[in-house]
Design goal:
The structure holds two protein chains of two kinds. Chain A is of the alpha+beta class. Chain A has one domain: Aminohydrolase, N-terminal nucleophile (Ntn) domain (Glutamine Phosphoribosylpyrophosphate, subunit 1, domain 1). Chain A is about 30% helix and about 25% strand. A seven-stranded antiparallel β-sheet of chain A has the order 8-3-10-1-16-15-17. In chain A, a hairpin with a 2-residue loop joins strand 15 (about 320-325) and strand 16. The longest helix of chain A has 15 residues, at about 130-140. Chain B is of the alpha/beta class. Chain B has one domain (about 1-230): Glutamate synthase, alpha subunit, C-terminal domain (Pectate Lyase C-like, 3 Solenoid), CATH 2.160.20. Chain B is about 15% helix and about 25% strand. Chain B is built from three helices and eleven strands; from the N terminus they run E-H-E-E-E-E-E-E-E-E-E-H-H-E. Chain B has helices spanning about 10-20, 195-215, 220; strands spanning about 1-5, 25-35, 45-55, 65-70, 85-90, 105, 130, 145-150, 170-180, 190-195, 225-230. Chain B has an eleven-stranded mixed β-sheet with strand order 1-2-3-4-5-6-7-8-9-11-10, with helices on both faces. Chain B is globular, with a radius of gyration of 18 Å. Classes of the chains: A alpha+beta, B alpha/beta.
Chain lengths: ~375, ~240
């Protein structure tokens, strides 16, 4: 049989993202987010799906929850040696999965709940977030065949090669309860479809799901690597996660300002503003030119305290939002919101370069 | 005749729709959940009444049908539509009427970005989109022909009427706007004019239809002043790479 080559068949795909958040931080199961992302099945091609879930580990809320893919026993042994040297592991085990049609050969998938080793942390002299971020970067960069794909507290990422609805079933997400869920269905364009390359991309409690592509990737990668980050996952999206971590956690920018750095207004727009705004935005663009993200994108950033939805400034990707009673919904297509929430109080389209920042009441970051 | 869409794949749904047209001129689609390409490439004087949210590329390449949508539509509805009418009782997503060639689209409320992008006309084939609410940025981008009418009935102020880069690359056709367009919204390729008697006749025709479809008072809509936005040139980028 002659195999059909790329270009001889049309694959009408374009990635899908979705999110559901409870305004007051009350948790709910993964059923609805799976249903929402599943409706956009045709936007992915089976080469990646994933979810981020916030509030799922209340019994270990003080621990960093590491989710790790291992390609080999050697990778696992080396990683555990490293983790034991730097953390006190409170609990660990295989992440429960169920055999699912559509999910092929998997790496070993482990989970560790851990607190930083007190003596090491004191000697390190920075906050435990910085300690953990550096440990994660070290494992991903130095241990061959080990990928920490989730490292926040009381949250977790779940991802695989497959369609997102199958990924949700595989990880049994209806059995988890979260106050914020994000989801992604992947159609990889320029980069390979592999387990580590599925979305979301995380560091600490930041997670990114992304529809689009980043034409400024190399400029952004060089920029974040100056601050110690390593882009090791063979895809453009991870750099967005590191940009938010750098700008918000390390540089102390507000989420709104960080979003404005990533999707900065055009110079001709800045020219028309009043002097105060003009100075502020000119300073931001000048200081953070390496953090300007170019190209078509819609992204949802999740974190323990809420989410940010952001489109590129020219709005070359779709992103719809809705509000209904105590919940917010986001999806690449309105129908994917209405399939789980038929008559929302309010539906709107997220504008280009106009971030939507939503914080959860009563959840400390 | 009624067809229930539910969670059927768009391929299956569109095949059922075509089969239904063999038996009936008018088909009601119920419980539509994002199925793409509804009415795509279909020719004839059929009628489709849609309940739910139709997916992207609604009525793409459609030729002659009338589609009534009881709700919102997603992106690229009326993509390269050849003829017919779409009446949307709600809002429309981005790129509504993308490269549309003839026929008309009426939207009760707002449209997203890039409405009417690369719309065109040829002899008697003159497409039109009538927008009851406000429009996102890049309205009429690269527009080459046809008519857009922007009513702004629900606008808070003139600034919310239309997004930035209005008419970027526009080189044909006309856009009528009810109200004032802030100068900084207009792209360099377009200019605003007072409406002539001929313009007002055109506007009246479209507004009458709009008011009939959505039960709005014609006199009230027409009580405000309209502007005409036209391209400065038929070839705005003719000199872009030329040495002058």
């Amino acid at each position: 049989m002659v195999q059909t080559k790329e270009g001889q068949i049309r694959i009408p795909s374009g990635c899908a993202i979705a999110a559901i958040m409870d305004k007051r931080g009350r948790t709910f199961t993964g059923d609805d987010i799976i249903k929402s992302i599943a409706l956009m099945h045709d936007r992915s091609n089976g080469l990646g799906g994933g979810f981020a879930a916030y509030g799922i580990y209340p019994e270990y809320r003080e621990c960093f929850a590491f989710h790790v893919f291992y390609d080999s026993e050697a990778a696992k042994a080396a990683t555990e040696e490293f983790l034991n040297a730097h953390y006190d592991i409170q609990m660990c085990g295989v992440i429960p999965t169920t055999p699912t049609k559509g999910i092929g050969k998997s790496p070993k998938i482990w989970r560790y709940f851990a607190t930083p080793n007190r003596i090491k942390l004191d000697a390190f002299a920075y906050a435990e977030e910085e300690y953990t971020a550096q440990c994660v970067i070290k494992i991903n960069d130095h241990i061959d065949g080990a990928y920490v794909f989730s490292s926040g507290k009381n949250m977790g990422a779940f991802k695989a090669v497959g369609y997102p609805e199958d990924v949700g079933e595989y990880y049994m997400l209806p059995s988890y309860k979260a106050y914020l869920w994000t989801a992604h269905g992947r159609f990889p364009t320029n980069t390979p479809g592999w387990w580590g390359g599925a979305h979301p991309f995380t560091l600490l409690d930041w997670s990114i799901v992304h529809n689009g592509e980043i034409s400024s990737y190399d400029a952004n990668r060089r920029y974040v690597e100056m601050f110690g980050y390593k882009c090791s996952l063979q895809t453009d999206t991870e750099v967005i996660t590191y940009l938010f971590d750098l700008l918000v956690r390390k540089h102390g920018l507000s989420l709104e300002t960080a979003a404005t750095v990533l999707a900065a207004p055009d110079w001709d727009v800045i020219d028309k503003l009043c002097d105060v705004d003009k100075q502020r935005l000119t300073a931001l663009r000048a200081t953070y030119s390496g953090a300007l993200v170019n190209g078509p994108f819609s992204v949802i950033l999740g974190f323990n305290g809420g989410l940010v939805a952001l489109n590129d400034r020219l709005k070359l990707r779709a992103l719809m939002a809705a509000e209904d009673k105590d919940k917010y919904y986001f999806a690449s297509e309105e129908s994917a919101i209405r399939v789980v929430c038929p008559n929302p109080d309010r539906v709107w389209s997220v504008g280009g370069g106009e971030p939507v920042v939503l914080k959860i009441k009563g959840v400390s970051v | 005749m009624t067809v229930t869409a539910g969670l059927k794949h768009h391929k299956e749904l569109n095949e059922e729709l075509k089969a239904a047209f063999a038996k009936a001129k008018s088909v009601t689609l119920k419980d539509v959940n994002g199925q793409r390409y509804i009415g795509c490439g279909v020719r004839g004087d059929y009628k489709i009444d849609i309940y739910g949210t139709p997916g992207n590329d609604l009525a793409a390449y459609m030729d002659g049908l009338t589609i009534n949508v009881n709700g919102n539509v997603q992106d690229a509805a009326g993509n390269t539509m050849n003829n017919g009418t779409i009446i949307i009782h709600g809002r429309a997503g981005d790129a509504l009427g993308y490269a549309m060639r003839n026929g008309a689209i009426y939207v009760e409320t707002d449209v997203g970005y890039r409405c009417g992008i690369h719309m065109k006309e040829y002899k008697d084939a003159k497409p039109a989109i009538v927008i009851g609410g406000c429009a996102g940025a890049f309205l009429g981008e690269y527009m080459a022909g046809g008519t857009l009418v922007l009513l702004g009935l629900n606008r808070k102020n003139d600034d919310s009427l239309v997004g930035s880069y209005f008419g970027t690359g526009m080189h044909g056709g006309v856009i009528y706007v009810r109200g004032n367009v802030p100068e900084h919204r207009l792209a360099k390729e377009v200019t605003s004019f007072e409406c002539s008697g001929e313009d007002m006749e055109q506007i009246a025709r479209y507004v009458k239809n709009y008011c009939t479809y959505f039960g709005v008072s014609y006199d009230e809509v027409m009580s405000e002043k309209f502007l005409r936005i036209s391209p400065r040139s038929k070839r705005p980028y003719g000199d872009m790479y030329a040495h002058i």
